[in-house]
User: Fold this.
Amino acid sequence: MKEIIAFIRPSKMNATKKSLDDLNIPSVTAIPVLGRGNQRGINTELAGIEIGKETLAKGRVSGMKFIPKRMLVIVAKDEDVDTIVNALVKTNKTGYIGDGKIFICPTDNALRVRTKESGDTAL
Assistant:
């Protein structure tokens, strides 16, 4: 099992939910979070501007410290990970800074509290 942690734009949440539904991925946790990455906290999506990578690299711009994102947490069977990650990338890639990041972490076990099922059957 793997835990997939994805940080995406809030505006992409509905499209992401639909793409996961299309894959029959029933379990996802979505949490509103604040953060910043390579864009240094500049919310280009809300500002309607594009800032070149070379300008950001030189540190010539400043902006708010954190911007809104959505953190998705999905625990999936090993064989489903590539399909889920590909769907997340396809749905969320705009080509602009701030598209997000995806982390894939090993998960040792899962336990369904109600039935005490464990492992993949608990998913």
